[in-house]
Design a protein that fits this description.
By secondary structure, the chain is an alpha/beta fold. It contains 3 helices and 3 strands, in the order βαβαβα. The radius of gyration is 12 Å and the shape is globular.
Amino acid sequence: MLQPLKIYIIDDHQMLIDGIRALLENDNRFEICGYSLSAKEALEKMKKCDADIVITDISMPEMNGLEFVRF
C-alpha cells in the first residue's frame, strides 16, 4: 500500500482549516501533518513536518501565501 500524502494547511481562517481537515482526514490517501494560522508560524512549524503538499491562502496578513512559497 502506498504511503499517504502528507498535507500542511496554512490559512488565517480557522473555519477554512477545519473544513479542509474534515474533507481530507477520512481519506486514507492523505495525512494532515499540521496547520498554521499564518505563513510566519508555518515557517517554524513546518520544520517538524515533511509535507508533500502545502495548501495555502494567498491573501493573509504579514506574509501572504505567494511570499511563503518563495521561501
